[in-house]
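Per reviewer request, we include the raw input and output of the structure prediction for the construct analysed in the revised manuscript.
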Amino acid sequence: MDQALTELVARIAEALERLAPPVAPPVTLDGADAFVWHPTSPAHLSPVTRVSRVDIGLLKGVEHQKGILLENTLRFARGLPANNTMLWGARGMGKSSLVKATHAVANQENPGCLALIEIHREDIRTLPDLLNVLRTQPRRCLILCDDLSFEKEDSDYKALKSVLDGGIEGRPDNVVFYATSNRRHLMPRDMSENDRGAAIHATEATEEKVSLSDRFGLWLGFHNCDQPTYFAMIEGYAADMKLPVSVEDLHAYAVEWSMTRGARSGRVAWQCIQDIAGRLGVKAA
């Protein structure tokens, strides 16, 4: 009976081991300079071998923002204190492109010094878990959340508030958080909030909404560009791709393209150049 019971217990243990999920390998930041956070079980960082980015010299019309963000990023990469940063404003004006470009500059100065980690908007509630993973890493990490915003009924912003500037653990010294958004305060505000006649504590609702943005030490605003800046973007991209087209023809096509899109921006300029390059049979480098 003892032998039979031992064999039965062994079979049960083996069956349970087969049913149990595999043990997640330890998270490391080796082998790449950029990663994407996947919180699904097992949580892991997926390496990105080639980051889709634009050279920082090609980003036009954002010289002031470029200088501030580059200084903040390089300071952090050198092991010095730096601020969490909110890049907000007009769409297509290079907010996320500037973050990725400054990351590249930091690693050109000191190869491998800074890891870029992207967290998707829908995973922002798992940011505390990501910080716990990175807290023990020797490498410095720049977390990027692109197109971040919240709706009225969304409670995920509370997790972001606690890790940016609050909680007993605080933000790890080796981590800085950058976010891009079309909204300045990340959360929507209604005209009714300006009507204080029916409110007992009218400012409390507003304070709750703007307090999230206050967690960012740097606010960098991006605004719609004028036509000379738009032409400078077009000319910079065309020169980088060595397109065989005159400046006059380039400007004429750029104006027509912007009119069909109803906007002028860095994104529109890049899309225009892609169309011109395709027509001329020039492949991107």
